[in-house]
Specification:
By secondary structure, the chain is α/β, with parallel strands linked by helices. The protein is built from ten helices and nine strands. Strands 1, 2, 3, 4, 5, 6, 7, 8 and 9 form a nine-stranded mixed β-sheet that branches. Helix 1 packs across helix 10. The longest helix has 23 residues. It starts with a strand and ends with a helix.
Length: 309
């Protein structure tokens, strides 16, 4: 898979024992990730000490959060009641979140159906996203970056090995960003969470970036070479793509294991899926999603401890 990268070749050698991969999955997926990790820690297994953390889309936000602030604090913030709008108030944005998500999925399915392969699909999505970029409001883009920045405990890259994924809409190539990329942290996370439709491509200088999930939703293959890899997938490893494209989590896991990695995955259990509801962008579902993730993580901690340690 063609992946361009801003990673430098001069970085000192880092331990390559344990990698934590956090996939995309919207607002509720982000809450679930925080919940699972907090639950694991509550059960005696803190996996945030990984030598590498890979974050994609909602997982990019979570990757920065868990490496910049205590898990317990993040969890308490996530399960706090979501402020309700006054009666009659109109939510910001051009359309309700559920409607926007449905339209996005419909258009995405159409682009996937017309593509010859994954690379062609990314180029088609990139071209469609650039159409929205041409008419996007610069002030709205600035406000979105500010919103993303406000979700991060710090505006500085953590002193940890973190990879944040995005896609170049002009070429369809995957892009991997890290602290040596020369890009501010808030820009990297905003790029990884820009789906290109309801949210236009993110602009960084003369370049444009869209959601890293178009490369692969989990991007677990970026952990190749690490002895143990733990993957959390809010979307349950599902994919909209033809299986022969190899975009699904199962294919990524097979690749890692073929390279000698030990791999474990955590997918939402029944209670977590119920907490998500029908719209993974629903802010109101975040507290329940985090709590469900916490219970799931705490229940799994004992079984996963021998693998991680």
């Amino acid at each position: 898979m063609n992946t361009s990268s801003f990673l430098t070749d001069s970085a000192p050698a880092q331990p390559r024992e344990r990698a934590l991969v956090l996939g995309g999955g919207g607002s509720t997926g982000n809450a679930w990730l925080i919940g699972v990790l907090a639950g694991l820690a509550s059960g005696g297994l803190d996996v945030t000490d990984a030598d590498l953390v890979v974050g994609t889309s909602a997982g990019a936000t979570a990757a920065v959060q868990i490496t910049s602030a205590p898990l317990a604090e993040l969890f308490e913030l996530t399960v706090a009641p979501v402020p309700q709008q006054p009666p009659g108030a109109v939510a910001p944005g051009p359309r309700p979140a559920a409607t926007g998500q449905a339209e996005h999925l419909e258009r995405l399915r159409s682009l996937i159906g017309s593509a010859e392969d994954a690379a062609d699909m990314r180029r088609r999505i990139g071209a469609a996203a650039l159409e929205s970029d041409a008419t996007s409001d610069a002030s709205a883009l600035d406000r979105r970056r500010a919103t993303v920045a406000a979700r991060l405990p710090s505006q500085d890259w953590p002193d940890r090995r973190i990879l944040i994924t995005a896609v170049d809409p002009h070429t369809g190539d995957g892009v991997v960003l890290d602290r040596d990329s020369g890009i501010e942290l808030a820009d990297a996370v905003t790029a990884s969470t820009s789906n290109g439709f309801g949210v236009p491509p993110h602009r960084i200088g003369d370049r444009r970036f869209i959601d890293g999930g178009y490369r692969r939703n989990e991007n677990a293959d970026l952990a190749a070479g690490y002895a143990r890899v733990l993957v959390l997938s809010p979307l349950g490893g599902r994919t909209l793509h033809p299986m022969e494209w190899g975009m699904q989590l199962a294919a990524q896991v097979d690749e890692l294991r073929a390279g000698g990695c030990l791999v474990e995955t955590i997918l939402p259990d029944q209670a977590s899926v119920a907490a998500f509801g029908g719209n993974m962008m629903d802010l109101a579902a975040r507290p329940a999603s985090a709590r469900a993730g916490f219970e799931q993580g705490r229940a799994l901690a004992g079984a996963l401890a021998p693998f991680w340690r």
